[in-house]
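Annex B. Sample input.
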Amino acid sequence: MSETFRGFQVNKTEDGQKVELKDLTDDDLMEGDVTVRVEYSALNYKDGLAMTGKVPVVRRFPLTPGIDFAGTVTESTHASFSSGDKVVLNGFGVGEVHSGGFAEKARVRGDWLVGLPEGLSTWHAMAVGTAGYTSMLCVMALEKQGITPDSGDILVTGAAGGVGSVAVLILSKLGYRVVALTGRMAEADYLKDLGAADVIERQPYSEKARPLGKELWAGAIDVAGGNTLANVISQMKYGAAVAACGLAESMSLPTSVAPFILRGVTLCGVDSVMASLAKREEAYKRIVSDLDFERLAGLTREIGLEDVPAEAAAILEGRVRGRTVVKV
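Annex B, continued. Sample output.
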């Protein structure tokens, strides 16, 4: 008889879906060549959608949600991993079409895993989480476009959230002057503690954008989409770049070609789900060298597995700041 382990399971119902924390067995694990004892997961915006069912993120039933996790390999037939290896997983449809991190055990394809680099614990890997890993991919995208600390101010939208908070941390440590855009001005002191030079109100950016606005930003990291991204693009300096990685406001982009053809603005799409192994490994190495882990711990809170449903509702309501680690 296989051992039981705790985990969430989502099942489809006539009204939508039902989520339960229950005892699972190896029979509940999905196909894969590596089994991992999950130590920590994290709560991301997409996890909030998956747990509440407000958006049909989960597309296979039954399924354990949780789009990322870090832990220790217990079994492996994959050439790159052996029992005892510390690993991290982000994306590849885990938590959507393949069972993920909100359980004490996971079985996945080894091709989806990244071995933890020296200096990064499983706790820190999830304090960084998909949000922080995405932040680093955004920073790398701006750097690839030649945006340096000397280029000018960098705008970060949704700055009090997971992606935004870590982006502010990374950029400020690298010497960029960061301006944080947020709908929660009560978090201004928090954002300045992370390294933001200025904090500005989101509301004006929610209005319809003009084709071209005043040139303000040398670079930007956007998690919102919609009018916010359109306004950001209209305010970019000549030769500037925007790294877009989210759609917290909208999937639409009501803008014009003017900033692209008159100012040479570059819009970089950043995908963390299917990024190559090489890009993932580079991002995690950069996280070790370019992220202040002491300050990261200051913006991170830890919850238990049983606390995930309430926290999932809170993140969708905009009541969660920084990072949330789930001790599995």
